Amino acid sequence: MSDTLRLQKETHVLIIGGGFAGIQCAKSLAGADIKVTLADRHNYHLFQPLLYQVASAVLSPADIAAPIRRIFRHQNNIRVVLAKLQAVDFSKQKAFFPNATVDYDYLVLATGVTHSYFGHDEWAGQAPGLKTLDEALEIRRRILTAYEAAEWEADIESRKAKLTFVVVGGGPTGVELAGALKEIASQTIPKDFRNIDTTTTRIILIEAGTRLLSALPEQLGEKARKDLTQMGVEVRLNSPVTNIQNGLVSIGEEQLPAENVIWAAGVRGSKYAETLGVELDVQGRIKVLKDLSLPGIKNVFAIGDLACVMDQKTGQPVPGVAPAAIQMGRLVAENIKAELTTKKRRTFVYRDKGGMATIGRNRAVASIAGLNFSGFPAWLVWSLVHIIPLVGFRSKFMVIFNWIWNYFSVSKSARLITGRPPMNVKEALPVTPPVKGQDPEE
Amino acid sequence: MSDTLRLQKETHVLIIGGGFAGIQCAKSLAGADIKVTLADRHNYHLFQPLLYQVASAVLSPADIAAPIRRIFRHQNNIRVVLAKLQAVDFSKQKAFFPNATVDYDYLVLATGVTHSYFGHDEWAGQAPGLKTLDEALEIRRRILTAYEAAEWEADIESRKAKLTFVVVGGGPTGVELAGALKEIASQTIPKDFRNIDTTTTRIILIEAGTRLLSALPEQLGEKARKDLTQMGVEVRLNSPVTNIQNGLVSIGEEQLPAENVIWAAGVRGSKYAETLGVELDVQGRIKVLKDLSLPGIKNVFAIGDLACVMDQKTGQPVPGVAPAAIQMGRLVAENIKAELTTKKRRTFVYRDKGGMATIGRNRAVASIAGLNFSGFPAWLVWSLVHIIPLVGFRSKFMVIFNWIWNYFSVSKSARLITGRPPMNVKEALPVTPPVKGQDPEE
User: Is residue B17 located within the same domain as residue B31?
Assistant: First the structure.
């Protein structure tokens, strides 16, 4: 079947996580005399950079998610498992899933990061984060329900709180969400409501640090702040959130009445990483060696957002972005294949492709190959860069169509309130808004 | 402001339900010297005839649902409320919502029907019905999860039960779902699974009566049966379901092991209709007079599926189909407007536009204007008839695109498992399938 040198019996590589890193690693193992198992707790690969557009009702889930089985239908050496990893025994080379134990020769951990509330997990109920499709649909549900509730709220102060959106965290997700929320309030829905003036909606972007978009050059962070401010978003820098409770967001002594809070502030490694008994950095990411393997555990790798590895050029940690994840996935696949021959493992060298963030219609900032630019050119480049890597022609087409539609009609196509409030979350908004009498507007 | 004759102070029409009937009634009241309130428990109007395609992962929710506010953004005399009706006081002309009471001059009840388990509500958990978007997403989740669970089930009998889908009810929804399930099993996913042969999936369509599609001419019901059988669907006529429990579907003495059951058998009027103290037919629908008002309550109407009214030509009840709902909505709007002038109320005359059902690729049956036809022509007509009335250009375009895509690629674009199992439902399938060891296929 294969003419390649076969030094051992068929090798089994177990990859945990179907994000950018895991998918690329599995793809790069195609054709090798290796058996691959890819396990994920979801049945789809999610194009996370566009997730905020599902939350803001521009895109549908199917536009930015592709079934993992579909991606690998023509790759014969892989099997896909819908299962959540529970534990690993490194010495026995076993991974434990509910009802099953899987032996591996190589283990690749690529489960990404989750929200970090900096020790205040009790904020999660009132300030959901945006990492999964279900979270995006939940945030969409809250945004749309807030306007419905405000429309029938007779009390002025309470109505103002319902029309106040706070986004915590001035990274790309926070900036993009704040811009999208402002567009919804000022362009998409004003004509749809009779009692409230949705253009008075307050959108507040709160950042603990001194600037927005800290991963990009300072001038672009400042440009983003100016653009957002010009659009009507209130940008608050140097404002660490100290509490979120009962519809109030506290910044030190100050209390902002805001019933809608979205958390885009911090991430930490998947929780189970803490149970592995390996060394983590302060953000809970797994510290890896230069070949991306775990210290002392040569046949286990961590890649993608979950891995903490230093950029040899800058001395800083490699950022948690898709290109880095893809590069890591590819390298680990090559390093595993190298073991089957006599090749040596290679060292991870991060190739920084730059960064960008979109702010609104025709507004974005980008830093590519040392070139910093903004406005319409950056917006166009941002759009292209986010279309090209989407899996499959259909998704590309759908996203392009929805963007063009959204651009010219200023309409959000996916403005549907679906689903139920999460079970474990204190419901911040009533599903059915209070109607305070027949004619609240009179 | 208006030159029209105004016999009384501004009249308030309260419409409950944003389905075909309620939407049409509100639209037909546009421009009249009438104030309209349209209340629905969802923020969108759902194009229910295509709901089964959301369940079968062809379409996304946003393709077939339009925000009600959006529909009426240019109609000035209407306000939209997201609220669920709780009770009505006919004598005081008041409708009660959570936290609010609304006075009305005219009340139009258009809340449709819900599933009827014929006195066995305990079946609901194992056999969800298909009336709402959330139900469609839940059925989609179950269908996709079933294959994931079967892929890793080592026990042969248990695997067979996981690969057995029972659709109860041989009306259009049941026929269309059974056909779609067969297409998924035999065309969409066979290449995606490694351990199971999805083409061996059993799809069983169970009908208590003597034939399928009882609302259509007998020859078309027979044609549908033949088409489905040829596609590989097991059609069981004269088979009333007597129990659904613990993964078993009972038809008298016979017990079918089937872990996936979808209920498309019976409907009954919305539950609150029972609390109104008005006369209902055996299906719990409100009996109305010829002008669609309730007997003895001249200013309250029932329209759409919720109304039981006789077709004057056939002597049979008017069927619960979209054209009938639209016709009723229009008539009631005219009858209300007539009261503002000196015109008399008109009698409802049902104009039967025929009926149709799609079975699969290039297969459908249709009966239009006395003409019965099937196969590709019927399929084409079915497609056109279901595209034209969709709200908005975007939805039309999206549905057409997804159909063409699905037609040529045999791929289901929306194959995503999202959401959580319902809170009040016994979970029939594990979200995480059991993995019985490293190499179940060996």
Answer: yes
Is B331 inside any structural domain?
Answer: yes
Instruction: Look at residue A129 and tell me if it is in a domain.
Output: yes
Residue A33: give its domain's CATH number: 3.50.50.60
Per-residue pLDDT, averaged over A233-256, amounts to 95
Of B97, B133, B422, the CB nearest to A435: B97
Cβ separation A413–B438 shorter than 8 A: no
Chain B touched by A97 (CB under 8 Å) = yes
ipTM of the modeled complex? 0.83
Of A98, A430, A433, the CB nearest to B432: A98
Q: Is residue B174 part of a domain?
A: yes
Q: How far is A155 from chain B (nearest CA, A)?
A: 13
- Looking at the structure, tell me whether residues A208 and A136 fall in a common domain: yes
Kindly report the average pLDDT of chain B as a whole number: 89
Stated pTM of the model: 0.87
Residue B96 shares a structural domain with residue B126: no
Cβ <8 Å between B100 and A435? yes
Residue A10, chain B, CB below 8 Å: the answer is: no
> Is the domain of A370 the same as that of A274?
no
Measure Cα distances from B368 to A247, B20, B203, B381, B405 in Å. Answer: 57, 20, 29, 10, 28
Least confident of A271-285, A384-398, B313-327: A384-398
Domain that holds residue B180: 121-265+354-409
Asked if A435 lies within 8 A of B137 by C-beta distance, the reply is no
Mean pLDDT of A87-106: 94
Q: Is the model's pLDDT at A376 over the cut of 70?
A: yes
Do A374 and A229 reside in the same domain of the chain?
A: yes
**End-to-end CA distance of chain A, in Å?**
80
- Cβ separation B420–A417 shorter than 8 A: no
